[in-house]
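Provenance and format

Records in this collection were gathered into a single text stream. Each protein contributes a sequence line and a C-alpha cell line. The two records reproduced below are adjacent in the stream.
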Amino acid sequence: MAHFMSWVLEALAKHPSRTLFKEIDRSKSPPCWVSVSYEGFQRDLERTAAFWTQTLHGRGLKQNDVVGLWITGIKYSDLAHIYGLARAGFVIEVLNANCHIPIIRDLFAKTGGKALLFDPKFTGLVEESDIGLPSQVIPDLNSLPALSPPLPDLPEVTPDDIALIFHTSGTTSGIPKPVPETHRWLKCQAQVQWPNLMQCYREDGRPLVVNNLGSFANIGSATTISYLSWSGHCLIQTSKPDFEVDEFLAMVEQGLNAMVLYAPWLSKILDIARSNPTVLSALKKMGQVHYTGAALNPDDEIWATEQGIPVTALYATTETAGVLVTPLAEKGILPGMRVIEGINVKFIPTRGLDHAHLDGDSEQRTQGGKLFDLFFPVESDNCPHTSIRNRPDGHITGDLFEEVKPGVYCFRGRNDDWIRTGKHLSFCDTKSIEDHVLTSCADLVENCVVVGHYKPAVVLFVEPIQPIDSAEAEGMLKTAILERIADFNSRLIPHERINSALQIVSVRAGSLPRTTEKGNIRRKAAEDEHSTILKEIYENYDSFKS
C-alpha cells in the first residue's frame, strides 16, 4: 500500500490555486485571516521535509523512526511540520502543550520515540530536564531555505503500519494513552468518512470552508489537511474553540459555510441567535453544522430544527474518527444518527448495565429500548491499531447507543469509568484517580468516587475510615489527601486534577450509593444524591480552577 502522504501530495496538486488554509492573525482586531494556497502549503511542507531529512539523518535517525513533535497547536507552521516530517518518511508522535518531560519520557518508552522536536516556547523545559535523546528546537518556517536537492522517496509501508501517533484527551494513571493511526485508517478518514460526513458537499459540490475543532496537536484538527485536501476544501482557523459571535460573523464574511463544534459551544451560539437575527441568518445559510462531544440540549435541537438550521449530530473518537452522523435529508430526528456510508461497524447488546446507571441526562432521554455497544471488527478500515484494540476480534468504543428507529441510533453515555469534564469536555479516567487515592490514602479513606460528568471540574467523594466529628478534622483529612496525591495529581491534565479542598467531599462510611450485586459505588447516583453540594462547589469554581 502507498504511504498516506502519497495521496495527500496527489490531492494537493489537484487544486494548486485554491485556498487550503486561512490562518488567523491574533495581533489584529477585529479578526482577520491570511490565506495559504494548496501550492503554498505543499511548498512549505517540502521545505520542512528537506530540513528534517538532513537534520535527523545527521543525528542517526532513519525513515519510519518515531519522532516526537511537541507543539503549541495554534500555528499554521505546526501543520507544515507535521506533514513535512511525514513527507520525510518519519512516524510523528504529536505532543500537545499539556505535556512535560517526564510524561514524554514515559510516552517514548511505549512508542519507541527516537528524538524530540519542540516549539521554542518549551525550550526552558527541555533545557531544565535532559530527555536523554536527540532534541532540536523547531525552526521558524520563514527561516527555511527553498527546496534543494530532491527529497528521498517515501518509505514502503503496509496498510497496518503506523503513520501518525496522537493521544487521548485524558490520562490513564497520569499518562495520556498513545493512539496510533495506520495508513489504512488515514485513507479511510480522507476518502470515505469525510466526504460522507459532509453531506452538503456531496449534495451540491460546493467547496467548503470549515473551522478547526481545537488544537492542531489533536487528531481532529491535525489530520484536516489529509481529508480536506482530498475534497478540495478550506480550513479557517479560530482564535479558540469556543470563539465569540463577532469572530463567527467575521468567518462567515471569509466564506465559512460549514461548522464542526462541541455541543456546549453550539448551544451558546444558538442562544445568541434567538435574539440576534444576523446570527440566525448566518446559521441558516450554513451547508451543515455538526455538533459532537456531548448531547445537545433537547430544546436547542427542537428550536434549531424549527428554524431550518442544518444541524447534524456527529459521533467520532480519536481511535475511530467519524462513525455516525444525522442525515441532512431526515428532518426532526436529532439526536438520531445513522452509520456513515462505507463504514463497517456492528451494534451488539451491552451486558449488565441498567438504564438507571447511565450518566448525565442519558437516562431521561432513553425510550426504553436496548442499549448497544459499538463494535469494529478487525476488517474495518477504521478499526484501531492492534496495540489499542480491546478485543481480539476488533474494538468496542465504550460508548452506548439506543436504536430509536430502524438504523437510527442515539448516544446514551458510556459503560466504563471515563467521564467528560472540564471546559472542553475532555475525557477523564476516574478509576485511575480513585485507585491512586485508595492506595496512597489507605489509612484514611475506605472508599471513594470521582464525579463531574459534563461539569467544569472533577469532585472527589470520600468515605473516611475514622468518623469525622468536626470541621477541623474534615479540614485535616482533606489536607492529608491533597498532600499524598500531589505528585500523581501534577502528572494529570488540568481538567483531571484535584487542586483544592473544595473538590473533596467527606461523607459517612458506607453512605455512597452502591450496586446491589457487586457493591460498586454508583457514580451517577452519587452525583444525583449530592447535587446540592455539587452546585455550591461549582458556583465557586473560579476559586480552585488551575
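Adjacent record:
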Amino acid sequence: MQNGIMKDWLDSSHLYGANIAYVEELYEAFLEDPESVPDDWVAVFNALPHRSNIPDDVPLSPLKEYFLRLARDNNSRISSSAQDPQTGSKQVKVLQLINAFRFRGHQHAKLDPLELWKQPRVPDLDPAFHNLEDSDFNQAFNVGSYAIGRETMPLDELYRSLQKTYCGSIGAEYMHITDTEEKRWIQAHLESVEGCGNYSKDDQIRLLKSLTAAEGLEKYLGAKFPGAKRFSLEGGDSLIVLLKELVRSSGSAGLKEVVIGMAHRGRLNVLVNVLGKTSAELFDEFAGRHDSAWGTGDVKYHQGFSSDFATPGGNVHLSLAFNPSHLEIVNPVVIGSVRARQDRRGDSCLPITIHGDAAIAGQGVVQETFNMSQTRGYSVGGTVRIVINNQIGFTTSNPRDSRSTQYCTDIAKMVQAPIFHVNGDDPQAVAFVGQLALDFRNTFKRDVVVELVCYRRHGHNEADEPNATQPLMYQKIKKHPTPRKVYANQLTSENILEDSEVNSLSNGYRDQLDRGECVVEEWRPMTGHSVNWKPYLNHSWDIEYDTRLDIDKVKELAEKISIYPDSHKLHPRVRKVYEDRALMAKGEKPADWGFAENLAYATLLDSGAGVRLTGQDTGRGTFFHRHAVLHNQDDGSTYFPLKNLSDQQGPFYLYDSVLSEEAVLAFEYGYSTAEPESLVLWEAQFGDFANGAQVVIDQFLSSGEQKWGRMCGLVMLLPHGYEGQGPEHSSARLERFLQLCAEQNMQVCVPSTPAQVYHMLRRQHIRKIRRPLIVMSPKSLLRHPTAVSSLDELASGRFYNVLDEIDELIPEQVEQIVMCAGKVYYDLLDARRKAEQTNVAIIRIEQLYPFPYEDISQLLEKYQHVKQFVWCQEEPQNQGAWYCSQHHFFAAIPDNAKLRYAGREASASPAVGYMSLHLEQQRALVQDALTIK
C-alpha cells in the first residue's frame, strides 16, 4: 500500500540526482513540523516505512536508498524539467522561515505600549539565517500551508505578510499545541487576515466609546474622591474594550450567560462600564452610604453585580463574582458557578477569568484550575482567561523577581491552551484577539488565554508612590498618551472622526456620570436568568422541617440502591458489601453508615432533587464504605445504583476529583452558590487535608453570606477520629471551624450513628436554609458493630442535635454526666459497660454549632441534681471543641454545677505517631472522664 502511494507520486515528480538534497531538507522540515511542508509531501513522508525498533527521526542515508530504489523500480527517467537543486533548497528555506514566524514571531511582536521590553533577537526570523539572499526576494515561492489564500508569493511580499501577522500588535503562541486541527484553525484565522480585523466606522466609534468610558470614569473618580482607593484601570483601559466585545460576540454565538471573575484592579470600571452599575450607586459607596440593615458588607472593589446586556444575538446575562483579596481564588469559584448553570440550562454559559501578571504565575491555585479544565467533573467547555499585564507585580520592579519564565502566561501551556499576547494601546487588535479567543473556545471547548500587555498609570493604589521603585518606567508613563488618546489620534489622522466628535464623546460620558446614570447603552434589566433564591431567604435555624419518609418508600429505595445487573461482576469485597445491603434493605440486618448515606441520597433524588458528590476517592469512599459506583471486574465498565432509581429522579453527579483541595473546594462552593436546589457535597480524603483549602473556608464558606449576601448549602465531609494513624490522618481541625462560627453562619455536626447521618443529609436539603454544613465524618465507626441503625429509625426519626444516654440508667443514681462528640463516645460506652458503672451518664452533642441550648436543657431536666460534668474529647486540649465551645458548655449545665476537661494534654501536633502511645493516651482519657472526682 505504501509503495503504491509512493510510486503514484513518483510518476509525477522528479526525484533524482541533485534533487535528493531538496528532499533531505524538506524531510528535515517535516520532522520539525509536519505542517510546514505542502500536503502532498506530508503524504509522501507519512507513507515511509516505519520500524518500531528505530526512532522516528531516522538517519537520512536509508531514506536516500529508499527513494532511489523506488525510482529504479518505477523505471523513471530524469526529466529535462527537473527542479534546479539550488531552487529546491531555497524553497525549503522559505518553508522554514514561515515555520520560524509561527513558532517565534511573538518574540518580535510590538506588544509593550511603553517600548521598555528588551526582547532578545531571534535569529530564526531573519531571512539571512535561512540563507535567503536579497536576490531571492523577487522570486515567487510556494508558501506551503501558510493560510494567505495563495499557493505562491514573492518572498518580499511573504516576508512582509509574516511580519504583519506575527510581529505586529499581536503575538500568537500556539505551536506548542499537539492537536493539528487546532493549530491549523488558528493559522487559518490569523494568517488569512494577516492578524488584523476588518472594522467599519461604526465599529471604530464603538471601540473609542469603550476607551472613553474607561478613561472617563477613572478621571472622574480621581477628581471627585482624591486619594481614595479605587485600584485604577488607567493604562489597561482596553480591558473594557475586550470584555464588551467578548460579551457582544457571546450573544451572537448563542451563549446566554457570562460569569466573570476578577481581582481588584479595574473592578469598579468593569462594574460601571460593562455591567451597568449606576454611577450614583458607586458614588454612594465612596461616600460611605450603605444599607446597615443586613450583613457586615465588604469594600467596594470586592463587590459583585448582575445585569443583562443586549447583543445582536439577544440579551446575555452577566454576573461579576464577589471575591476577597486573595489572589486568583475566585477563578475556580466562577468556574464552579458556570458548571452549575450549564448542568441546569445546557452549555450556554461562558466563564471569563481576569488575572494579574504576577498572580497567574505565582499562585498555585491557577495550576490547579488549569489542571481541572478538561476533567469530567470540572470541565465547562473552556474558559477565556484574560491577563492584565501591567508589567509590575504588586510593587516588584522586575519580572525576573516574580516568575522564572519569559511570559507570565507560560503556565497555560500545561494544558496546551493557545496564548494571544496583545498590545493594550491597539484596541482593534484587542477586539480582534477577543473574537479569535472566543471562537477558539467555542469551537474546541478548551481554555484560551489573552494577555493584555499594558501599564499601570498610578501605584498599586492611588496613595502609593511608584516612582520610588520604578523611576524609569514612570518617567515614561508620565509622557505616554492614554489609550483613548492614542486611538482618537489614529481615527482623526485617518479622517474617520473629527476632533469635535471625539470631544463630544468625552463630554457626553461625563454628563452621564454627573447625572448618576447607567452609562452602558447595552444594559437591560434582568429577566429571570438566575435561580430563585426567595424560598431560602430570612430563615432561622428553628424553621420547620420533616425528614420522615413512609417506611414502604424507604424499603423500596433501599432495595433499588442494593441491586445491580447480574452481568456486572463485582470485586469479592464489594460484592459482600452489597450482599449485606440487600439484607439491610429487608430489615434483616441493621443499617451501617454507607447504606444509610446512600439511602439519604436516594430519597432526595427520588423527590427530584439533584445530588453532586466529589472528592479525591469519593466513588468508593477513602475507607471503602460508600461504593456508589460499581466497577465491573471483567471490562472495567461502571454502574451507578443511584442513577437508576426511576425515570423521574433528579440528576446524580459523582466524580473522583483531581488531587487538589483548594481549587476543588472553591469550585464546589461556586457550584453550590448557583444551585440551591441540589445537595452539593465535597469529601476530603482525610479531614486534615482541608488545610489546603483554608482560604476557601475562611473567605467564602464562613463569611460569604455576611459579606456579600451569597448563600451556600455546601456540605463538607471531613473524616475525623483518633485511630492511631498519626498527626496527618487524625484531626479535621474541628477547632478551626468552631472558631469561625458566629451569626449562625454555618453548621458543625459530629454524627455518631447511621440514622443521624441519614437525617442530617436530608435535613440539609429539605430545610429551607442554605448555609454550609461541616461534618466531622467517622472512620472506624463506618463498620463499628454498635454504630448501626434500624430501618424504622431511618423512616420515622429525625436528626437529633443531642443524643441522650442509651443504657437504662436510673437518673436519680447518676452522679456525673460526661458530654462528648463523635467516636470517643463508643470508647466511653464500652469502658463504662465493662466496669459496670451506673452512676455516670454519657450524652452526645451531635451539633456543636449552632449550639443546641434548648435541646440540652430539655435533656438535663431529669439530671438537675447532678453537680459534676465532664467534657471529654480525643483531641488535645488546645484543639477540638474545648477551647472554642466551653462557654456553651458552661451556659448549658446547671448554674451550681462544675465542669472539667478530660482529654489529651495540649499539643503542637494534632496526634501522636506511635500506636502504643496513642492507645495509652486513649485509655487514660476515657478512664479520666469516667472517674468521679
